[in-house]
Amino acid sequence: MTEEIIIAGFGGQGVLSMGKILAYSGIMQEQEVSWMPSYGPEMRGGTANVTVILSDERISSPILSKFDTAIILNQQSMDKFESAVKAGGLLLYDPHGITKHPTRKDIQIYKIDASEEAAKMGNTKIFNMIVLGAYLKVKPIVKLENVIKGLQKSLPSRHHHLIPENETGIKVGLEMAEKIN
Amino acid sequence: MKEYKLMKGNEAIAEAAIRAGADGYFGYPITPQSEVLEYLMAQKPHERTGMVVLQAESEIAAINMVYGAACTGKKVMTSSSSPGISLKQEGISYMAGSELPCVILNVIRGGPGLGTIQPSQGDYFQAVKGGGHGDYKLFVLAPSSVQEMADFAKLGFELAFKYRNPVLILADGIIGQMMEKVQFFDQQPRITDEEIIKKYPWTTTGKTPNRERNIITSLYLEAIVEEQHNRKLQEKFKRMEEDLMFEKIECDDADYILIAYGSVARICQKSMELARANGIKAGLLRPITLYPFPSKQISGLAGKVKGILTVEMNAGQMVEDVKLAVMGKTPVAFHGRMGGMIPSPEEIVSALKNKLIGG
């Protein structure tokens, strides 16, 4: 099994940390992983993206132009990455702030109102965990228990008291993904 | 089994330096390698092993601190990215001339000049052909994974002391910034002053009874003496071939060979898989040491294949060394991106088709 993912949105949405938790979850189930962030001027200008690969085999290129899954959290990223999903692949997006919705017919498209849900829950910081939960509903590539272990590894111990609310976010997300096509 | 950690290449080499028993790190921040200094500072290695970590006032100060500490037989390192490595070249030339061991990390970014912060391999010539003034070579290691960033910190110190020569670890922004899983070797003790005197009798360790005083210098005013010194250095640079390293992937039945190092070798491995899925028998040769260069191995493959494609993130630098090795035995083509652009696996397959296979 190899899953090649791009997560893209604004800086501050937790794009990079979502990728890191996913990568750590992969390690917890003894997979090979890579996590390659955008660190160039686009990061300094507001948008951020990360390529995460989980595989049962040695990973060749950490840099990709086609993905099994794109998790898209703003319009700029939609413009850039809708076309980068492999045929038959998955596009998961938060419609908040999206003006041009995805149109491709050869991929699976799922919508997740994560920013709205996070605001309703009064905790916008778990936005990215809701998105991660929705992704894991559609593609259960890592087990929830391994995600929790991944959280323990990727968060410094002074933040471990936040793990339960992150777990709640993931569980909320697991119920929410809505298929568009 | 040892625990895997998820780390950036820059963090992994910093952790590995502490574990390798490094005595000191002197550096100055620059993207995309600032995490080396940040990680070291956060780890407080002074408390862990007694290692000194110091942010110097400039790159030039940092390399000269390395120069001074290396004279005393200490395991020391510095790191920077392209513009900062240019600043260090005077000190590096002096260290090569004075035959001093140290580890230098260059996490290359796009150039020339201040360039860009994104990944590049534009410093290949600077790395393998000298860099500073005078006839000298660095031992150059090109990691292509976070694990190799960690392993090469330890190996780099071993080679630096084996040859009494600076070792350059040539990475790029991809290797520095990406996270992969990595396993570390156990903490090694730092060398004691007594061990240095015993093991490295050339060092300047203060008053030592029963021996002549040691002088570490790169200055030999008499031409005949300087020539002798140069002959000795050249003989050493040739001897470095003992530690040549390279990796061959699916070269045995290959019609076409891709040659690439560092992060680009990883991208080329994907291209190789894509090409094979399209019925093109492609293989990959990855030089792990860029100096010494695997010329004999490339020459050996050249007689058996229909063509070689060298892929680099520059305008074509290593391809010159590939052509010198191939000596016209088979066509050698080049595909490169510059200024911080990264070639995609697909475009490398297209280059292979367009430039070598035809149609």
Task: Walk me through this protein's architecture.
The complex is a heterodimer of chains A (181) and B (359). Chain A has helices at 15-28, 41-44, 75-81, 114-120, 127-138, 144-154, 163-174, and strands spanning 2-10, 32-37, 47-55, 67-72, 85-93, 108-111, 178-179. Chain A is an alpha/beta fold and 181 residues long. Chain A has a single domain (2-179), classed as 3-Layer(aba) Sandwich (Pyruvate-ferredoxin Oxidoreductase, domain 3). Chain A has a seven-stranded mixed β-sheet, sandwiched between helices. Chain A starts with a strand and ends with a strand. Chain B has two domains: 5-182, Rossmann fold, CATH 3.40.50.970; 249-357, 3-Layer(aba) Sandwich (Rossmann fold). Chain B has 14 helices and 14 strands. Chain B is globular and about 70 Å long. The relative contact order of chain B is 0.13. Classes of the chains: A alpha/beta (181), B alpha/beta (359). Chain A binds chain B through residues 20, 23-24, 27, 32-37, 39-41, 59-66, 153-154, and chain B through 4, 6, 31-32, 116-118, 173-174, 177-181, 263, 266-273, 340, 342, 344-346.
